[in-house]
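Design job #97: recover the sequence.
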C-alpha cells in the first residue's frame, strides 16, 4: 500500500455531512403528464423518464455503500454513510409515489421499471460488491451534474406545478449534498491505485452505456404517448 493510500485511509472526513429529511410532496397525480406546462411535454417527459429508474437506483446505491460500510473507520464518514442511506431511502419513497401516477398513464413506464429491476438484479447476482460501488459512483456523478444544473438555473421550474417542482429541487439539493459519499467510501475500501482506478473507470463506461441506452428510447416512447 502506497503512502498516499495510507494517508487517504486514515484521513479525517471533511465533507459537509448530509442531512436526512423526511419530506412528503403529495403530488397531484392528474398533473403527471403536464406538470411543467411552460417547458412543454418533452421536458416533462424527460424528467418523468428519469423518475422511473430512481427508486430502483436508490436501493442499489444503498446496497452498494452498505456492503462496504464495515471498512469505514472514520466516524464522520460513518455519519455521512448513514445520512446517505437515509436520504436515498426518502428519494426512493417519494419517487415511487411519483411513478405510480406515471404508470397509470404510460403503458411503457412499468415495463421499463421491470427491465431496470432485472438488470440491476443481474448485476448484483453476478458481479462483486465493489463493482456495484463503482457503478454507484458513476451514476451519482450523473445525478450530481444534473442536480447542479437544476440548482444553478432556479428559473428552470418557473410556472411548473409547485409540488413537482419542489420534489426535483429537493432531490437536486440532496444529491449535491451527498455527491461525494460513495466516492469517499470507495477510496476507503479500495484505495486509489491503478487497479482501483481501472475498476472505477470500467464501472463508469458500463453505467453510461446501460443508463443512456435504456433511458433514451423509453423517453422517446413516452414523448410519443406510448
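Job complete. Output follows.
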Amino acid at each position: 500500500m502506497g503512502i498516499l493510500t495510507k494517508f487517504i485511509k486514515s484521513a479525517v472526513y471533511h465533507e459537509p455531512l448530509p442531512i436526512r429529511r423526511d419530506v412528503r410532496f403529495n403530488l397531484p397525480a392528474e398533473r403527471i403528464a403536464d406538470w411543467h406546462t411552460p417547458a412543454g411535454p418533452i421536458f416533462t417527459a424527460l424528467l418523468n423518464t428519469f423518475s422511473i429508474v430512481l427508486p430502483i437506483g436508490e436501493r442499489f446505491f444503498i446496497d452498494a455503500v452498505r456492503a462496504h460500510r464495515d471498512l469505514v473507520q472514520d466516524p464522520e464518514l460513518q455519519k455521512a454513510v448513514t445520512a446517505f442511506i437515509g436520504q436515498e431511502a426518502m428519494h426512493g419513497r417519494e419517487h415511487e409515489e411519483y411513478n405510480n401516477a406515471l404508470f397509470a398513464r404510460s403503458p411503457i413506464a412499468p415495463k421499463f421499471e421491470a427491465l431496470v429491476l432485472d438488470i440491476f438484479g443481474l448485476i448484483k447476482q453476478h458481479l462483486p460488491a465493489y463493482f456495484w460501488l463503482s457503478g454507484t459512483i458513476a451514476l451519482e456523478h450523473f445525478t450530481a451534474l444534473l442536480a447542479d444544473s437544476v440548482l444553478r438555473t432556479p428559473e428552470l421550474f418557473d410556472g411548473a406545478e409547485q409540488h413537482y417542482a419542489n420534489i426535483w429541487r429537493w432531490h437536486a439539493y440532496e444529491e449535491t449534498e451527498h455527491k461525494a459519499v460513495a466516492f469517499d467510501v470507495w477510496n476507503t475500501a479500495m484505495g486509489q491505485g491503478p487497479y482501483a482506478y481501472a475498476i472505477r473507470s470500467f464501472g463508469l463506461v458500463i453505467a453510461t452505456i446501460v443508463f443512456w441506452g435504456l433511458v433514451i428510447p423509453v423517453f422517446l416512447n413516452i414523448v410519443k404517448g406510448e
